[in-house]
Design brief:
- The chain is mainly beta and about 80 residues long.
- The chain has a single domain, classed as Ubiquitin-like (UB roll).
- The chain is about 10% helix and about 30% strand.
- The protein has one helix and five strands.
- The protein has a five-stranded mixed β-sheet, with no helix packed on it.
- The chain is elongated, with a radius of gyration of 14 Å.
- The termini are far apart.
- The relative contact order is 0.27.
Length: about 80
């Protein structure tokens, strides 16, 4: 299965692309922390509580944003 993530085509092995390949499984496969990312699937933001039942299909387009803390503010 091939999907586009942040504008880049990514391929996933057949074992990962079964009918039950969900958004939650994708975030896990990408080794991302679910509480630190936001996901847009085909131009729609998907709430985190819907990730386990949101299926990823061949050709889907995703934008995944990771939240990063840190830095300093000087005045």
């Amino acid at each position: 299965m091939k999907v586009h993530i942040n504008g880049e085509e990514r391929a996933f092995a057949d074992s990962e692309s079964h009918a039950q390949f969900t958004l939650a499984a994708l975030v896990e496969a990408l080794d991302m922390k679910p509480d630190r990312v936001a996901v847009e699937l085909n131009r729609e933001v998907v709430p985190r509580d819907r990730w386990p039942q949101t299926l990823i299909k061949d050709g889907d387009r995703l934008e995944i944003v990771q939240f990063v803390g840190g830095g300093s503010c000087r005045f």
